[in-house]
Target: ATP synthase subunit a
Amino acid sequence: MNQAILLSSSADNIDFMIHGIFSFHLFGQEIWITTSHVCILIVMAIILIFAIVANRKLAHASEIPSGFQNVVELIVEKLDGMVSGTMGKWAPKFVNYISTIFIFILMSNISGLFGLRPPTADYGTTLALGLITFFLIHINQFKHQSGKQIWRDMCSPLPPWLPIWFPINLISEIAVPISLSLRLFANVLSGTVMMALVYGLLGKIAVIWPAALHVYFDLFSGAIQTYVFCMLTMTYIAQACDAEE
Model:
């Protein structure tokens, strides 16, 4: 594996940046394949392999689950419960999307445990996730709410004939994907930078004990940020779907 794909840190070289691996030309433009692209493909390949194996195992599932079948059913049950508890009657429509981004973000966040640079430490990745959520919110808002109701909400808390608050509410709507993406990006990147500094500055004495830091920055913080991103996504989408009666 190209060393640039991994977090590289030594006493003389502390490296937590995104690097270009190779480039090619398309329609006269130079396009770079970076470490983020490769790490995303690795994470996606792991998820895809897990999904294929799970599908094969569940096709011949036993009535009393055990082993791998038990793990798969537990994951599905917990994700279904999380989405149902937040989105209520809208859960069946969005459970697949929420479960997919939950697993992808979680796997991306903990990929630092295996020496990869987490894809979510690249703002291009988190911004794309935030924009998908943003478009889902407003597509469902226009689908389930009337134009009159949307205008009334945008002018709230004043009456719709006095749209003084409209610019402020518009800014708050535009800020949704930015806040979602920045929160995830900043927390994951800070953990990536901290671990690179620990290994780079402490050198040979950074043995075994940094595992405790990995538990916090990669596992604990990564899981919390995954949950926060998905919870906010579900809340925003559910509010957009619920028309005021």
Notes: The mean pLDDT is 83. Residues 3-241 form one domain.
